């Protein structure tokens, strides 16, 4: 990386071009394409995500204003709104899903030695699983009808708790029940999966035990069970109980025949009692409670991408265009996370994205020093917004 290249082109160096070409060839993405390739489409959409463009017209207008710099940014094709819209409609979204998965593998390798949290001594992989709903206009997105006068899509997302890296995303209609997403979830032996009680389906939870994985979830009050034994707990830590139970409901007993561990915990900060269920009997009860607390990381991930990337307002209306935009947004998030780790930057992801949004066309070395305070003062909450009284 040298000072003769733009920040944007140096950032996209973290994308392996041979891997990208394999993704494109896998789905025949450049078939009958003369000028605006899949790589141009990716760079254009990534530019729109990084700079916070609100629409295709906004993105294209901004790029045309920077036309003398586009070649140095890596964009070779002629950018027009109709060409970009056609590309989002017709080119297979799985190209960018596969690209994102490749970037995710790279990011997880970089963050694999990052400790979970002070007080959680866990060597195995740990994940949090949840979903978020993105509301849509029924008139523009009739294929995603959610309610009578409303459409929506859901992002069912698995987050690696080391680095908050999304490692599985399933995009569905808003009608799909959260628990059904467990059918699509890849399960790694020896890993921990943290979920809320909306995912309690003992037939589906049995898959974790069959695959030698562990789950941690909150128990419902209506679960019918019989206590088999209990262990002593230190109530000064917030623990209230640690028992081994067996389900005895007419259906649940047949769906999940093995014992479960039930842990009662008083959350002082929330002022409420919480009860956890897990199929792991080795971890200390307090570590199980602290591990469930980290489930909030997936909620913070949803909040972050909705605030800082463009996944609430879509550039196209077809399922392919929506999925393309979501997966390219995921690629951008993971690219920033990779850059942050590679440069060993102490800046937050939000700060890095804000700096990038203003400096993509600058020709400076992409380094840790580039993001230091002396280069960029982020005391203003949002530098993209003009001050009404700044004369």
How would you sum up this structure, described in words?
This protein has 391 residues and is of the alpha+beta class. Among the domains are: 7-95 and 320-371, no CATH class; 196-281, no CATH class. The chain has 13 helices and 10 strands. It has helices spanning 7-11, 17-26, 38-51, 56-65, 67-73, 81-90, 94-111, 202-210, 252-255, 285-293, 296-308, 319-342, 349-359; strands spanning 126-136, 145-147, 150-160, 165-173, 192-194, 214-218, 225-230, 239-247, 260-267, 272-278. Strands 1, 2, 3, 4, 5, 6, 7, 8, 9 and 10 form a 10-stranded mixed β-sheet that branches. Helix 2 (17-26) runs antiparallel to helix 7. Residues 386-391 have low confidence and may be disordered.
Quick description:
The protein is of the alpha+beta class and 391 residues long.
Low-confidence stretches: 386-391
Mean pLDDT: 89
Largest sheet: 10 strands, mixed
> From the helix content, strand content and strand pairing, which structural class follows?
alpha+beta
Tell me the total number of β-strands.
10
How many DSSP H or I helices?
13
Q: End-to-end span in angstroms?
A: 38 Å
Question: What is the CA-based Rg, rounded?
Answer: 23 Å
Apparent shape: globular
Helix fraction, binned, reads 25-40%
Relative strand content: 15-25%
| H and E string | HHHHHHHEEEEEHEEEHEEHHHH
Key descriptive features of the protein:
391 residues, alpha+beta, 10 strands, globular
Note the topology.
Layout: H1 7-11, H2 17-26, H3 38-51, H4 56-65, H5 67-73, H6 81-90, H7 94-111, E1 126-136, E2 145-147, E3 150-160, E4 165-173, E5 192-194, H8 202-210, E6 214-218, E7 225-230, E8 239-247, H9 252-255, E9 260-267, E10 272-278, H10 285-293, H11 296-308, H12 319-342, H13 349-359
Parallel strand pairs: 1-5, 5-6
Antiparallel strand pairs: 1-3, 2-3, 3-4, 6-10, 7-8, 8-9, 9-10
